């Protein structure tokens, strides 16, 4: 009796190939998922930190108006701030050209430390900066 030669892959070869294929697919999927999560996290961090200069200008104006804390929502970013007085000094003397004399200013300068907390989605960021305000002495 003659044996016929059967062409094709054995079951073991097919299983090994399938295992390698699924291993590669799993690695690619995990890498892609990690990249998407990192991209979203970077996007949220950028949104949180991108508006800090604009927020600091608004906060400085609020401090100049006499506020020492506040909160608001700005373009989807919720923020809360408090200001603590660090130092008070008189504004330096100035030269009055009309009267040709050095005069003392009646304005006080105030240095504030501002703590800012901003929130967007599940992310939170804290920043601290200094602001200056001034007011005529009473």
UniProtKB/TrEMBL annotation:
The keyword Membrane applies. The chain crosses the membrane at residues 12-32. InterPro entries: N_methyl_site (IPR012902). It comes from the Bacteria. Keywords: Membrane, Transmembrane, Transmembrane helix. This is Prepilin-type N-terminal cleavage/methylation domain-containing protein. It comes from Planctobacterium marinum.
């Amino acid at each position: 009796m003659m044996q016929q030669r059967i062409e094709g892959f054995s079951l073991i070869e097919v299983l090994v190939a399938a295992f390698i294929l699924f291993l590669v697919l799993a690695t690619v999927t995990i890498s892609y998922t990690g990249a998407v999560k990192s991209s979203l996290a970077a996007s949220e961090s950028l949104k949180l930190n991108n508006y800090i200069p604009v927020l600091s200008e608004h906060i400085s104006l609020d401090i100049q108006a006499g506020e020492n804390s506040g909160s608001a929502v700005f373009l989807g970013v919720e923020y809360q701030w408090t200001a603590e007085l660090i130092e008070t000094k008189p504004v330096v003397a100035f030269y009055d050209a009309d009267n040709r004399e050095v005069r003392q200013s009646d304005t006080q300068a105030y240095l504030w430390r501002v703590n800012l907390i901003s929130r967007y989605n599940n992310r939170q960021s804290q920043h601290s900066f200094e602001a200056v305000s001034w007011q005529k002495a009473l």
